[in-house]
Amino acid sequence: MKILVVGATGMVGSQIVKELSERGHETTLASRSGGEGVLKLDASDVQQLTAAAIGHDVVVFAVSPPRDGSDTIEPTMKLGHAMIAASHQANVQRLMVVGGAGSLLLPDGSRLCDAATFPPEYKAEAIAHLMLLEKLRTEATEINWTYISPAAAFSPGERTGKFVVGGDSFMTNAAGESYISVEDFAIMLVNELEHQSVSKQRLSVVGV
């Protein structure tokens, strides 16, 4: 498959690119700053994103909300509008979105980001991710999208290939931990890309 990875130079995007390349997929890399072999792209610009997406089977969106203390909601909603419009106009077969863990549901029905133990410095980002997910659910009705939430703890680590895939509920492993390495997250995302199990739904993943 031919795949456009937006946010290809970031922590998550770069690992997804590596996983895709190792499995023989043709990838186009795009990021805000661009660079050698990387398309410079404003992912919130519908025309730019559409032009970049044309001719690709799948678009993988690995762009995080701003973390500089500025407003996160408006730029995230612009990104959401652009990814939906561009995917439709470019007629891509699949849209894969790297999401956040804060919107996952706890057993009592509340969201992880509303728990007293949730780090306050990540609250705005979690709300932005939640609003992006809701935008996909309500506005991307004609697009084959999948939103993937990592575990609560998410960082570079080992590539084990050992994880459990879930849905909207917050999960922990046998040790009571909610962790996934970026490497294993990339494996899970590419597995889902190659062997689709859901459409227009959120998936989540936790390492075992």
Automatic annotation (TrEMBL):
**Lineage: superkingdom:** Bacteria
Q: What residue stretches are annotated with the NAD(P)-binding domain?
A: 7-195
| Pfam family of the protein (one) | NAD_binding_10
Gene Ontology MF, one: oxidoreductase activity, acting on the CH-NH group of donors, NAD or NADP as acceptor
**Sorted alphabetically, which InterPro entries does this protein's record hold?**
NAD(P)-bd_dom, NAD(P)-bd_dom_sf, Polyketide_Oxido-like
Which PANTHER family has this protein been placed in?
A: FLAVIN REDUCTASE (NADPH)
Protein name in UniProt: NAD-dependent epimerase/dehydratase family protein
Q: Which organism is it from?
A: Mangrovimicrobium sediminis
